[in-house]
Write a structure and sequence with these properties.
Layout (H helix, E strand, L loop, with lengths): L5 E7 L4 H11 L8 H4 L7 H4 L1 E4 L2 E11 L3 E8 L6 E6 L3 E7 L5 H19 L5 H11 L7 E6 L8 H8 L2 E7 L2 E6 L2 E6 L6 H38 L7 H34 L7 H9 L2 H85 L2 H4 L3 E2 L2 E2 H30 L1
Parallel strand pairs: 7-10
Antiparallel strand pairs: 1-6, 1-7, 2-3, 3-4, 4-5, 5-6, 8-9, 9-10, 11-12
Helix pairs in contact: 4-6, 7-8, 7-10, 8-10, 10-12
Amino acid sequence: MLKNPKIILTEWIPFGKNYMNEFIDRITLKEYQSKRKRYFSVGKGDIRDKGIFEVFEYKTAVNIIEFEPETYVQFTSNVLDEDLSFFISVDYLGRVIYAVELESSSLKKLSCIIPNLILKSSHIMYPLISSSQRYLLEILYGRFKIYKHIGVISEENFNNEELHKLTQIIGGIKKILKLSDGDIIFGDFGIYISTKKPEKFENFLGYYSFIRSLTGVSRDLFFRLVYISSKLEYISDKLKKMDIEEIDKIRAELSSIDKELSVIEIVLGYLEEIINIIHENYPPDFDDFTKTILELIDTDKKISRIRYRLTEIDNLLKSNSELATSLTRLLTTISEDLEREIVKQLAQNTKYQVALGEAMEVLEIGIFGIYALEATHVLIVTSGLEEYFKHFEILNLSLEFWIILISIFIGLYCGIKIIEYKKTKVLNS
């Protein structure tokens, strides 16, 4: 059983001095003092002492401890209607530390509590950061960034027989460092410190956890770019045998990839600036105890590996961007060729339809002539004048012939006029 263990969650969020100033103004309520009724939930007492405001569907209570413009801010915060309160520290490098002290708990219970703490910390921070920061994180991680480096500090001596339980909290054990003032157990995604003097490890934990957070973010970017590479390769193969119906779908996929690459490029710029600052200022200005621990775990090599990884990411990003651009151009060319082929086919179909329509018009006009012929012939036969007309001739042709011929022309003329009227009526409509 661990007595009052302290949980420290560390993550990296894109910040910088401009975002830092905006963040400090927001959580110290500087921007909202003239709009209290709109932004605040009024309770008993002076609202300025409460620091309560509502953003989105989350209500977050903030109590400022201290801050320095453009540099850092420290405050306590919690989601309203919950007793659990986090100590939160944010600096312009993007280091965000959430600390909370729990009641006595077992390792097994901690393995269930910590995921809930990670989610709650995201609920607290999500409405506090700016919309552009949320946009970057949402593109990379979805609504909430779940990965955070986990630190556990306990004043109890650790029992090595419980190492298998500890792996459920900090992942597979990578290294155990035994010191005069305590033990440090390093895991894949966390660290456990057993010491009677937790304050001595404060600087180390804040620094090391931040390095591990940057390592996690760089790894996430690298794997995201590898995934994008596979998507681009799939699209490239698909373009070789693409149907016209798939053009819009592929164009949407390329647009989504272009958006992801833009976000990765922005985040990479932040990371490169931060890791250069850390590299130039290593070793940090800490006490000898903290520096000794950092040297024992080869922190300088970890920083160098992050720099190498960022170089790999930059090269892969350029490669993916060039491939995405070339595929977009190829898709445009293919779609234009398909459109030209469709237009050509439509033109041919139009010519065919026009020729067929003209043939049908001739046929209909001919039918009108035949109707006129049949009608005239029936009238002559039924009138009994057939024999009478045979006695009259014009140009050596009987009068009956000329009557039938004139009737045919009249029928053809009527057919032409009727068809023209119908065409005009359709075109006007």
